[in-house]
Design brief:
alpha/beta; 9 helices; 43% helix; binds S-adenosylmethionine
Length: 276
């Protein structure tokens, strides 16, 4: 049977906490504009599915200052950290241990359902998307960051980083039953679910829009958390993976260097004529 949480160890690692912090600092300033498009009530109910340490949930609670936000995850350490970090928002922001595969939440509960940086890391994303659509009210929105590891570009150097990103994610995905290219595949899944008004936008994390140190911190966290599993699940050795990540980090830190990570942000609406 396919492991429903093949990245459990990496998700709970200290490097993930650092990475989520850097990712939110890099992505959120551009993501805000996309979230502000949604026509949701001021006192909206918002779900952050796979909330991790609450980087997105807390920002959602601040962006929508009367909304109620529920963050759910299966890593208790992340939930504890989120509750203590954002205690000042606790009247409107809560965190619960729940799995996105089987939410203990009634149908049609949320005006906006957010799922950031999760769908690439789990098998059966179609099952999770169906569950997210179930708990979203008719006319409500799904807001999804669907990563795609074919959308990272670096300058050439000693190691061929195009080969790294070509071979690594395909092998990692095959070994874990996950789709590390879901950014390009999710449109078809959502269209097949009969969701409406599907849009695909991009947050551009590059060395012009994002501080180099923030972008570098993301790659450092990935190196520290993933060099070992890459060596176990792909033909790339731990040393090779580390060297490739170090080359990317140097590219980002080079004041004349340019690198980019295109992050797909996908939105869809639950049809208003959806039967109960
Ligand atoms: C890369 S983190 C993203 C965290 C957060 N959404 C953010 O944007 O900072 C992915 C999260 O998904 C969670 N996750 C994985 N499988 C899950 C499941 N079945 N149910 C709930 N959360 C899950 C992991 O524990 C991890 O915290």
């Amino acid at each position: 049977m396919t492991d429903l949480n093949p990245q459990a160890k990496q998700m709970a690692d200290e490097s993930m906490v650092r990475g989520l912090d850097a990712q939110a600092r890099a992505i959120w300033p551009q993501e805000i504009v996309l979230l502000q498009r949604y026509r949701i009530p001021v006192n909206a109910r918002i779900l952050d599915a796979g909330c991790g340490t609450g980087e997105g949930s807390s920002r959602l609670a601040e962006l929508f200052p009367v909304a109620h936000v529920l963050g759910i995850d299966i890593v208790d350490e992340h939930l504890h950290l989120a509750r203590s970090r954002y205690a000042h928002l606790s009247e409107r922001l809560s965190f619960e241990h729940q799995s996105i595969f089987e939410l203990r939440i009634p149908d049609r509960s949320f005006d906006l359902t957010v799922c950031r940086h999760v769908l690439h890391s789990i098998p059966y994303p179609d099952r999770v998307l169906a569950e997210l659509a179930r708990v979203t009210r008719p006319g409500g929105y799904l807001h999804l960051i669907a990563e795609d590891y074919g959308m990272l570009h670096f300058q050439t150097g000693m190691h061929d980083l195009r080969e790294f990103w070509h071979i690594g994610p395909a092998a990692f995905g095959a070994a874990t039953g996950t789709d590390l290219f879901i950014g390009r595949n999710i449109y078809g899944i959502l269209a097949g679910m009969n969701l409406r008004e599907i849009t695909v936008d991009y947050v551009i994390v590059d060395t012009i829009r994002v501080p180099r140190e923030t972008f570098a911190a993301i790659l450092e966290a990935w190196r520290d958390g993933y060099a070992q599993p890459i060596s176990e699940l792909t033909p790339i050795s731990r040393d090779e993976a580390t060297a490739c990540f170090n080359q990317m980090i140097a590219n980002i830190r080079d004041p004349r260097g340019y690198a980019v990570w295109m992050v797909p942000v996908v939105c869809a609406r639950v049809p208003t004529d959806r039967s109960a």
